[in-house]
Amino acid sequence: VQLQASGGGLVQAGGSLRLSCAASGRTFSSYSMGWFRQAPGKEREFVAGISWRIDYADIVKGRFAISRDNAKNTVYLQMNSLRPEDTAVYYCAAKYYSGTRVYKDTYDYDYWGQGTQVTVSS
Fold it and tell me: Where are the beta strands (DSSP E) in the chain?
């Protein structure tokens, strides 16, 4: 599976962005998908994940929404009410798994996209 993330950019605090992650292959629906982010000098952290369920990091709950379109082999991350502390490189990831668990650790995922920069100015 190859993943291509896009949609990052520069936005003012309070603004919105929608990230997209397009996946290759014909079995996209069999993959659990996740969004992670990494700020300079920090470890990569879980943001949101979608399997048969959806889950979010506490810090983005109520502001971000993950969704997927299996017909388009794409997963999205709608980010609203952005804050300067949301500034990071955002990565999408895939794990071959179908079930109710939402994986939150980087080592759980098998495939990664190249990342897209999100910068939120104050």
Answer: 3-6, 9-12, 17-23, 31-38, 45-50, 54-56, 64-69, 74-79, 88-96, 111-112, 116-121
